[in-house]
Automatic annotation (TrEMBL):
This is 4Fe-4S protein. Keywords: Iron, Iron-sulfur, Metal-binding. PROSITE patterns: 4FE4S_FER_1 (PS00198), 4FE4S_FER_2 (PS51379). It holds the Pfam family Fer4_7. Transmembrane segments: none annotated. Residues 257-286, 296-325 form the 4Fe-4S ferredoxin-type domain. It comes from Desulfosporosinus youngiae DSM 17734.
Amino acid sequence: MTTIDNSISSFGVPEFAIPYLSRFISEYEMDLVDRLDGQKCTAPEIAVRLGFSLEETQVFLQSCYNKHIVHKEELNGELVYFAGDFYDLLDYMCKFDENYPLMDKELKQALDQWCYQVYAERMEPYLNSLLNGEAVDRAPEEFMLIEDLDDVLERVSEIRLVPCNCRKLAEQCAKPVETCLSFDDAIKDRTFGRSLTREEAKELVMTAHKKGLMHQLNSDWRTNGPAFMCNCCSCCCYPTRLAQEKGTKGIFPISQFEAHYDETKCSHCGACTKRCNFGAFYWGETERVVKGKTRRNVEFDPSKCWGCGICVEACGSKAISMVPLDNGLNHNKK
């Protein structure tokens, strides 16, 4: 095996993507990964290995850092660089590289399947800790009801909008992709995207809500401040897909509420069946007559409700409301 083959392996490039590698990373960028050889090096050390001037090396390293091809950290008082991996590069590309949408459909499908599998493997220890009631290094996601939006936004100073990597990768629905928000200290030098005012952020989230996207943010936002907000679907969103696969409803993401259905108010129009991401509202087998018209009965299975709250606005007859769960987690409004 050649050194470049070793570098491709250490960079974590999936085998199916190797023939297309030039679409993701240039020869010079791959050569940098090869010459780093799994080590952490300063810019002057890298300049020697590449045969570049220090100025050229610093410009090149910044470009590679922006694309997540390399990462950097301070070590013993010096700034050092080390190789990233293909997973991080793909995350950057699907959001910000204009050529990514032009790739072959089959290749993008393979990339989504591979990326989801890597995500699931990396999340497994974290989910196991949550399921076992063990301490974790970050708060899990929590569903946010839309009426809490103003409270969330009032707690932040800086807001950054970035595309949803999940919908960019999966492409399973036509819902908006410009929907992910980072706040304050969670905005890093590689967050990119564009800054929003509170008013712009509110309008964006309300639009996402109308499109049927659920809202998730860090569950410790009331005490430590909001860090992020994702506006999610169940067909593309990696965390939601994984939660359904692993059966972590109520734990990841945390649910504070569940839907309450008053059948006596229901017009059986079926709007909620289209809105619900989890099949909690569905068409039953029986029928009834409503205002002279025969309609199938709308049914509700509370065991399938995840407490996202997006069903409420769909119900014109006000037959759906959100009630707090008695799980010791909810924070009722005063």
